[in-house]
Fold these 2 entries.
Entry 1:
Amino acid sequence: MKNSNSEPSLDVILNEMKNMAHQIDELKEVRSLLEAILHSTDDAISVVDEKGCGILINPAYTRITGLSEEDVINKPCTVDIAEGESMHLKVLETRKPVRGALMKVGKNKKAVVVNVAPVIIDGKVKGSVGIIHDISEIRKLTEELEHAKSLIRRMTAKYTFEDIIGESELVQSAISQARHAADTPVTVLLRGESGTGKELFAHAIHNHSSRSRGPFVRVNCAAIAESLLESELFGYEEGAFTGAVKGGRKGYFEEACGGTIFLDEIGEINLAVQAKLLRVLQERELIRVGGSKSVQIDVRLITATNANLEQRINEGTFREDLYYRLNVVPIFVPPLRGRKEDIPLLTAHFRQKLGQEYGRRVAKIAPRVIDILSAYEWPGNVRELENVVGRTIINMNYNEETILPHHVPVLGKGDRPQWKSQDHSMLGDLGFSDFEGTLTEIMDAAEKQVLEKALQKTGGNKTMAARELGIAIRSLYYKLEKHRIG
């Protein structure tokens, strides 16, 4: 009989060794499979132990960060961070995963988004695994998409001569000049104050010309940084400056080939860009920034300015030779104060347009409103009128369909309600000389008389009286109670 306490037989030991060898083979297969998976993904993977030291990376990690295994393995997990804090350390400390953390990694400060999760075994944190997504390409594509969208917006002419509202002699003369210019390829210079509608004329000239099927690229020269304007207008070659897109990029002039380019605020460009623009007009060709090869262009140029170019020539800030190239057909767009007879037409147009945009039914405009608008000088021109009509509609109640004087906001930079400057019948002759007593007693008496006149004018409608007086309805009720009115 065998002794139960005897040593295991050789066969048992061999079987156990075979099982262990089989398990080792299986572990090797699993390891090989995991390594194949790690090597095949385009996302960078970083694994650290419970102390925050690197124990595993994949080739994608090296490609994104520029760091090799020698740089990372058994090194602190902060070695790869260029900007930001270590998400590995945060996860090891909090035992909670982190998702969508933005940072920059590696020698080239690559922009990435990081997801890190803890490795927990038997309730203990044994390390963490980080997945790093390269977003620099996404950002580049997003920037290119935004650039394409901006070009699409710039390359559409929306307005025609029928959209220019006005029957005054000045406006009709400008329209007639623009129509004649549109039939030719000449350069047009639109002159006039800000807000007069120069861009509408540029749209209309393009749409009335033989180039109407081509692109219409509009550029506000004052809205582009001076350091970028040259490359935006004329394009640039790869490597022309830091941040230049690979392969270079076309400028607005090349984008406008076969069509029209509209340069607004032309008086704001610097002398260096003026010199290059003059060459483009003379030679019908351009050279991109950082390039040496000339590019032929076929573009019709329309410019606009509210600046006094003649004065700037005398000051030495605008080239005289460029001025004569631009001023081939000058068209003056008149200010609104010079064509006040167009205010009723413009107001009616904005009433209908903005009423629809705001979801309001605004059927009529009281004649007194037109009188108020016509008495104002409109330093902001048509743009200011549109703004005022919009605010007027907002001031109306939803059940009101007629614009009345008390709906009109304060015009200009004053701080008095409109009725005070335009409608003296409200105040009448208060007869301050008839009041006696202290200053407080005289002011109270005057206030009471104004309140009574306001209620009389509005037929006792307290809401309308408050608007007429430019005060809150709550303040009106307080004053009525104070003076024991109604």
Entry 2:
Amino acid sequence: MERMWKGVSFILGSLLVGTLLSGVLLSLPSGLQSNVLAQRDINPQNLQTANDLSTTFRQVANSMRPSVVSINSMQKARVVRGGTRGIPDGILEGLPPEIRDQLFGNGFGDSGSTQPQKSGVGSGVIIRADGYILTNNHVVEGADALEVELSDRRRIEATIVGTDPQTDLAVIKIDAPNLEPAPLGDSDAMQVGDWVLAMGSPFGLDQTVTAGIISAKNRVQGIVGQGEGFEDFLQTDAAINPGNSGGPLVNLRGEVIGINTAIASRSGGYNGIGFTIPTSLAGPIVDSLIESGSVRRGFLGAKLGPIDEQRMQQLGLPNMEGAYIDQVLEGQPAHLGGLQPGDVVVEVNGREIRDLLQLRNIVALTPPNGTLKFKVIRNAEPVMLTIVLGERTNAALARFNPAGELWGADLEPLTEETAQQLGMRSTTGLLVTNVTEDSVASAAGLDAGDVILRANGQPIGSIDQLKQMIAQAEQVGRPLQLVVKRGNSRGLVTIQ
């Protein structure tokens, strides 16, 4: 018993000594505390820097929370009517288009079926106190109803103000009091290595915050608008997962510098590479969508090419930066403003041009009739030009690729003139000008004068776009279904 009490006394004594030493250590002056930290190989200055960064993260996250929302998009259950098997073509062609679409849908499948109600979760950020919210187009695309959940758990029905599939941006609106908008920052000022926070609702987990850095700038991935869109992504290693789409990427000043859009992943989850639409690209789109609900883009009328090493040496350029003017359309803005084939655009409105994609974006983000001041290198000498842009339309783009051949049929994009002659209000479509006998087009039933309006349910505005649709159909082993206008009727043509 005596030995047991001695053991207990020893333990209690050790605890008492430890407590006294801790008290002494905590009561030491800061200089002595630093010495203790130094003995542990902890630099007090580094620790303070880390604490300051942590405090900044916390402050930015707290300031942004009221501006970040979850977006629930819902598609109602619907009956899909498809299948025209066994119905004579003459009867189909004789039906008015709206009746045929109502009865048979897009003609795919063998019988009617019911699609279940679908819902999805994305993110968004409040950008104006009167309820405007910026998000991705793919978050709201095809939705029959939208519901926004705020940080204070209010759930409010939202309406779509406008969408722009070519940049994957959309603006929606809610009517609610006490909204806190987030400021938009300057994405061009961000540098590789800068800290950022990504916010949103990954996997439906609202108000999630992740931290990382800007990993790269000016990424073009060919993922927006089926590769025809406008991209200039910021790349980040801040964790972005499904559901983060439409949420903000924020700098340490608490400013939105991007909209989280996509990830590079083999598994569908976070792999350390995310892509964000910068505010330099999003800003003009947002203003246009709020003002008019749509986006009108500038048109230069020049075909651009890259500056490679061979071209740099041939032209005597100091580096490979700039955009090469490969072709100028006569009578179009570039020609009227004095641009010539062989010119190298190095500045626009005082901003250095690094490559053709940057120039393409600048032109597209400038409204029609906007004025741009170009600095070009011509014959090793700088030349200043002022160009007033036209409007980017299918008819304008068709001038670069006026005709093409597919399946033994000659095709050309519709112009305003040909559309008017055919009694059409839209210039979206490809006109069949000639069909070779015994060709695939002839066997499928295409004829001169037909207008191809859609391919597998998507509007067709260019030959290159139709070629992409053909490639996609071949990848999945599926025939290509064309909606064709012939005279005053529409019919379905299948290309095997």
